[in-house]
């Protein structure tokens, strides 16, 4: 007997609107920028649309699978012309930067002063902001969207409201509640759902670092966003190999990476070249686990550190390698915006257009 829904609902974690049938929402799954728990479902959606293949970026070999660190800001880093929008969004996060843009200069500086106090308290509390404290703050603000997504999911999964999410809670909220022995008896492609459930449980066990079968908020974040956690790297690689390694030899061959066809469009040829020249690092004609890891979780520049160094360099007037509250407030318009800085940017933009 099923006591929650008439069918499993893994679309809850794929970002597909619950009011739409799963089959009608492939673009919602393909549009995600971050890894999601059930890649088998993503591949199933892609295969259903195989006759009208999208661009290579949307396929199982493309950017839908590869995690690249999002830029700190989409704005141009153009301090030379007095445009500090990049710095504002990097330091505050994009949504909070918009809030600061509506403040008066006095309100903006007052709120910046409180942020400086928070940065120092989160570090060593010595009254100065070090490079490490500044970097930690920027990294924290850039992770806000992940924390928000986990908070949005928390009430769905924490059904008994005890402040933790057990594996059974997550399983039932995602797939529906089944009596033992009746799992997925009422849905088509039951074997696929069983595989998804097995994979999700394995991922949950890795995310559950203390092994108590109850996820804290941090552990649930690791489950939902494994690409952000070093201890989840192996599970991301394993899931990718399982999706692509059709002959189960532990490697991804080029014809598993790209299914051969009678006529191959130009993007398929390009992907073959990418496989040969950039992804097959040891040139043995196949990808092992380490090469898959380099592909789907490529090394990234420490963007928060780069921005922290930039802000420190531009604001450290006495060149002692740390920032006082006075130094930050003395360069406040680089850290945060206000109605006044927006007005200055508008003047600059208008002048450039003349």
Automatic annotation (TrEMBL):
Q: Which residues cross the membrane?
A: none
- Give a yes or no for keyword Lipid biosynthesis in this entry: no
Where in the cell? Answer: Endoplasmic reticulum lumen
Q: Which GO terms describe its cellular component?
A: endoplasmic reticulum lumen
Fetch the InterPro entries from UniProt: EF-hand-dom_pair, EF_Hand_1_Ca_BS, EF_hand_dom
User: What keywords tag this UniProt record?
Assistant: Calcium, Chaperone, Endoplasmic reticulum, Glycoprotein, Metal-binding, Repeat, Signal
Give all residue intervals belonging to the EF-hand domain. 145-180
Q: Name one GO molecular function term.
A: calcium ion binding
Please give one Pfam family short name. EF-hand_7
Q: Which GO terms describe its biological process?
A: protein transport
What is stated as this protein's family in its record? Belongs to the CREC family.
Summarize subunit and interaction data from the UniProt record for this chain. Answer: Interacts with PCSK6 (immature form including the propeptide); probably involved in the maturation and the secretion of PCSK6.
PANTHER family under this entry? RETICULOCALBIN, RETICULOCALBIN-3
Role noted for this protein: Probable molecular chaperone assisting protein biosynthesis and transport in the endoplasmic reticulum. Required for the proper biosynthesis and transport of pulmonary surfactant-associated protein A/SP-A, pulmonary surfactant-associated protein D/SP-D and the lipid transporter ABCA3. By regulating both the proper expression and the degradation through the endoplasmic reticulum-associated protein degradation pathway of these proteins plays a crucial role in pulmonary surfactant homeostasis. Has an anti-fibrotic activity by negatively regulating the secretion of type I and type III collagens.
Give the protein name, as stated in the record.
Reticulocalbin-3
What is the taxonomic lineage of the source species?
Eukaryota, Metazoa, Chordata, Craniata, Vertebrata
